[in-house]
Amino acid sequence: MTSNYDPVSVLVDPVQAGLPSARLSPTQISQFRKCGLRYWFSYLVGWREPSTPALAAGTIVHDTLEGLYRLPNLDRTFDNAWQIMGNIGKELLAKPDYEHLNRGANLDEVRKRADLALTGYFEMENPLEVEVDLVDLESDVDADFGGVVFHGRLDRRTRNPVDRVTDYKTGKKPNGEQLDDYVQQVMFYAAAINNGSDPGVEEVELLFLPDRQVVRRPVYPAAVTRVIEILHETRQGIDQAYASNTWVAQPSRLCSYCPFKPVCPTQQKNAPQPGSDSSQNTLSQTGLTKKPAPAVVNSDELLPLDMD
Known about the structure:
Blueprint: E1 8-11, E2 23-24, H1 26-34, H2 36-44, H3 53-69, H4 78-93, H5 104-124, E3 137-145, E4 148-158, E5 164-169, H6 176-194, E6 203-208, E7 213-218, H7 221-244, E8 246-249, H8 277-285
Helix pairs in contact: 1-2, 1-6, 3-4, 3-5, 4-5, 6-7
């Protein structure tokens, strides 16, 4: 992510932090490369980043499309999708982590975003005509690249007429580096699948549902080589930061939306040392909560999916 500000190395207090995950997911990789300190707060210390209307709508639409494609072809209608989405939305917004979105303007925004994305999807594709096996829906993808372990969960893979990995995006299509980052994330899945005995993914696809935009890229050797290099660079960077207790904070426009802004030394002149009791107490007072399990294991649970 391009920034007008220089990165800052921040010494953290590791007492309340866990170990880095042994597996790297696309979300982890993207977060670490954007801001190592935010990655540390989320993945090693285990703070939950609060859900937003955009993230909630994204989760609802992803789960809706998975449910839709688990129906027989002729039942994949808009009316059925709408009913599935209503049930999933009610269930999700009743959960404690989402209840603050289940009223007022927040609820209106969740509904608006989800409705726009689902409507956009049906204007882009006819799900009655899409051939997809159940094993290729929300399936886990794991690979070992020279000792660096990748793990992710892809939205969909279709094998005819082109072997393609598809990722749904419930935000509008961005430009520049953010789009490159999205393409890179889905390219990891292609590289991981093609790393084994599988015949091989030929193309990656991003469907930006609200504005009906499709982005496709061929899976060519140079692209695969590059994402494997990024995987190794990220693993090395995380391990070095963990060993030194020093994580790079990258000030940017995204800082305005970061839940850790109140305790970030790049944003607050007198911020407590990250990880200290004072830092932890300040984050608790802002309403953030921590996951009950240590921030050691699975990848995408600690950070919500980046839907925008």
